[in-house]
Design a protein that fits this description.
alpha/beta; 4-stranded mixed sheet; 4 helices; 30% strand
Length: 176
């Protein structure tokens, strides 16, 4: 029968949400350092200016608070976060499946697709699958993978060397 805990707000604390602090290092709205002062004096100065007291560095001793417009501050933080997300590039892992007895034309088509993946900045996972008696000639499969390494050597580097996983060999290439 305990009361529900107060939910934590996202972002820095502002005004009366700043609790358990006696003194703060105050930076005014002009960016000038006002020095260490009691919390309630800093809050009164912020209210007189018609702005908010925002905790910028809560882990410092004493905590650093700045006088600014909290709504505008949150808006600018959201814009920065959105800009950072927009510039972010997610690297996908594309898969190319090969067989040990692949013909030249089929191989060229797969290589063309692989090169386009590298130009987009994606990684490529090459899976070479053996069927039936092909397991007896694993050296043919490894030759195909060596040929792939040689052909994309200028575009990509081997991130994971070829290793056997049951009836298939897996190799991962990443763009340079």
């Amino acid at each position: 029968m305990r009361p529900l805990p107060v939910p934590q707000k996202e972002g820095p604390r502002a005004n009366r949400d700043i609790r358990g602090v006696r003194e703060v290092q105050l930076i005014d709205d002009a960016g000038q350092n006002r020095g260490v002062m009691p919390f309630f004096d800093a809050l009164r100065i912020a209210e007189d200016a018609g702005l908010d007291l925002v905790e910028i560095s809560p882990n410092a001793t004493p905590p650093v608070c700045k006088i600014l417009d909290y709504g505008k501050f949150r808006f600018l933080e959201q814009k920065k976060a959105a800009e950072a997300r927009k510039k972010q590039k997610t690297v996908e892992v594309k898969e190319i499946k090969l067989r040990p007895g692949i013909d030249d034309h089929d191989y060229d088509v797969k290589m063309k697709a692989m090169k386009s993946f590298f130009e987009e900045g994606n990684k490529v996972k090459i899976t070479l699958r053996f069927r039936g008696r092909e397991m007896a000639h694993q050296d043919l499969g490894l030759k195909v993978l060596d040929r792939v390494k040689a052909d994309v050597g200028d575009l990509a580097k081997v991130e994971q060397e070829p290793n056997f996983e049951g009836r298939q060999v897996v190799m991962v290439l990443a763009p340079r």
